[in-house]
Amino acid sequence: MEIYTTPTGMQAQSLNWKRQGKRIGLVPTMGFLHEGHLSLMDIAAAHADLVVVSIFVNPTQFGPSEDLEAYPRNLERDLALCRERGVAAVFTPEPSDVYGPEYQSYVSLEKLPNHLCGLSRPVHFRGVATVVSKLFNIVLPDLAVFGEKDFQQLAVIRRLTADLNFPVRIMGGPIVREADGLAMSSRNAYLSPEERVSALCLSMALKHVASEVEKGERDVALLKASTEKIILSRPHTEIDYIAFCDPQTLEAVDSIGGPVLMALAVKVGSTRLIDNQVF
């Protein structure tokens, strides 16, 4: 497994692979890898000749009061997991390698970020769109795999890729959960034992709504109210949003008459967790 720390080094290797006719699959991550990330690597490996994993805690997608400095990191362990998974190369630059002196070029979308996480994290998706655009230009992948837990991020990246004509196939990987239902996330490491129990309210709320929809309930206001009760019944919880929306546009809906995305963002203690399901 090769390790590249500079954009020029990674890009040169990618160009070499391209000349050899190799299909490159990219899995962008911020590190502190878990089984969810590893499942994305498996998807990439099934559709490409070789897999590149980027490990980069991207500063431009963090707001001033967010957890950039505290974000969990363990590069040595991450590299070992990538090696075990048969990854061809890991791209792990420093922020100064990605955003050089006098950096001033950013990518933003007009509509999709104005929903869900974008409302409480106003700079987040500009940072995501910018770093993904840069990764596509550096790694030159034929396909890239992103987790469906970050549903809005995946929607933004699909739109970005289409709008800017990147020759990259975007693939989504299903949410991977712990045995008790908690969606896997690097930020789960922040949770205390008591908060870890409370965090199950997200998956419990999704299961509850799935059951109600199966029974015939279609009124979003009623589903939101019952969801709020489930979440706030657990200690240390604070709701950022409970949203029911169109999976394509992320516009809010009042009733379930077709495919609808239910998305949650909840603070458990100081840790912000997200989860979702399409009904």
From TrEMBL:
Pathway: Cofactor biosynthesis; (R)-pantothenate biosynthesis; (R)-pantothenate from (R)-pantoate and beta-alanine: step 1/1. Pfam families: Pantoate_ligase. Its EC number is 6.3.2.1. It is found in: Cytoplasm. Keywords: ATP-binding, Cytoplasm, Ligase, Nucleotide-binding, Pantothenate biosynthesis. GO terms for molecular function: ATP binding; pantoate-beta-alanine ligase activity. GO terms for biological process: pantothenate biosynthetic process. ATP binds at residues 30-37, 147-150, 176, 184-187. The active site is at H37 (proton donor). The keyword Transit peptide does not apply. InterPro entries: Pantoate_ligase, Pantoate_ligase_C, Rossmann-like_a/b/a_fold. It comes from the Bacteria. GO terms for cellular component: cytosol. Its main location: cytoplasm. Belongs to the pantothenate synthetase family. The reaction proceeds by a bi uni uni bi ping pong mechanism. NCBIfam families: panC. Catalyzes the condensation of pantoate with beta-alanine in an ATP-dependent reaction via a pantoyl-adenylate intermediate. Homodimer. This is Pantothenate synthetase. It comes from Desulfobotulus alkaliphilus. The lineage of its organism: Bacteria, Pseudomonadati, Thermodesulfobacteriota, Desulfobacteria, Desulfobacterales.
